[in-house]
Write a structure and sequence with these properties.
Largest sheet: 8 strands, mixed
Shape: globular
Strand content: 15-25%
Distance between the termini: 40 Å
Strand order of the largest sheet: 1-2-4-3-6-7-12-13
Length: 303
Amino acid sequence: MFSELKFLVPWGHVAAKAWGHLEGDPVLCLHGWLDNANTFDKLIPLLPRGYYYVAMDFSGHGLSSHRPAGCPYHFLDYVTDVRRVAAALQWKRFTLMGHSMGGAVAGMFCFLYPEMVDKLILLESLGFLLAPEDTEAWLKSKRRVIDRLLSLEAKQQTPKARSPKAALQRLLEANSHLTAEGGAILLQRGATETPAGLVYNRDMRARTQCHEFLTVEQCVKLLQKIQDRILIIVSQDGLLVPHNLPSRNHFVKALQEAFESTLKEHIQLAEVPGSHFVHLNEPEVVSGIISNFLTAQNTRARL
């Protein structure tokens, strides 16, 4: 059983769902890009009792309010969402668990507020968004954010309504790693029923993010500032396994090499069978690893 939560923010509210008792050790769960809090629906019931799990919807996702008109979705805004929710819950120190983009948000929060993070669990994420190697590519990514925002504002399109079957099919086409069951779970929180059909809840502007990019050197240096233990889980058929990466992503490979050479004793890196959404498609594959990590004595790693 879970309960629904709402946290007031200046432009509306941030929605969340919670499992467990308020007195339990706090764990804040962060979903991936264009997903929502339901991504943890099958995993959290398999995790240890005695914890209070809160899975939030980032602004513009799930049941959370969209940002005000004219505002793009900056990466640091998602980090601010986390800080707002932690303040609303009056949490001084807690564990962060993030999937994909949520892992990058969790990593940045950990860098900015290391004193607030007990443990960091990254699912199909290395905790960072790595900078493009090419300067022109970096410039184009920034320009694209502005152009897409202005284009969306000019079009002022009404969100398209779809039948439940078509809405699920569209979601699965855009997420080849999702199963039909997993897609249906995300759709329960990710769409609203209207007389014309299902309409996706996510803000179209969230499709274009303004990232905070880091180099490999910055990532390693920042990791050395994190005082606590980190668990990283990557899937064999996911997006981060080296042999599945295209050559342009050698930054990710270099960062993984840095984990092995510089940070191995402080970071647990586990490779499991499954896809990018293994935590949703096959939660039993990762639940044991996460449970052991959560319940293990937290030996603080000071580099």
